[in-house]
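Thread title: Can someone regenerate the structure for this chain?

I was given the following input by a collaborator and told the matching structure tokens would be attached. They weren't. Posting the sequence so someone can regenerate them.
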Amino acid sequence: VQLQESGPGLVKPSQTLSLSCTVSGAAIASNLYYWNWIRQPPGKGLEWMGAIDYSDSPYYSPSLKSRASIARDPSKNQFTLQLNSVTPEDTAVYYCVRTGLAPPTADYWGQGTQVTVSS
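Best answer:
Regenerated them for you:
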């Protein structure tokens, strides 16, 4: 199983950050997993942002719920993240991650993609 993030590395403040995660070796239509976005700002720990399940039900961190949107595209075996109204505090390495349902243990990670928010 492989996960690969893609998207712009530089986003201007107040704009929308858009990332995609392409999954190979597993079907995102599976009812056995959650598909997550996790980020790590410089010098800080990992932050779970949200996830989506096989029924297209999204789950978000309360701190990001008003700005984040996660969706699936089973035809491309991809899932996506949009984060609106970004600020420099959204600068981080962004990871897409597969977790099981119960417990939601992470078993596969993408390599991560650096996103910098700067004018």
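The two ends are 36 Å apart (CA to CA).
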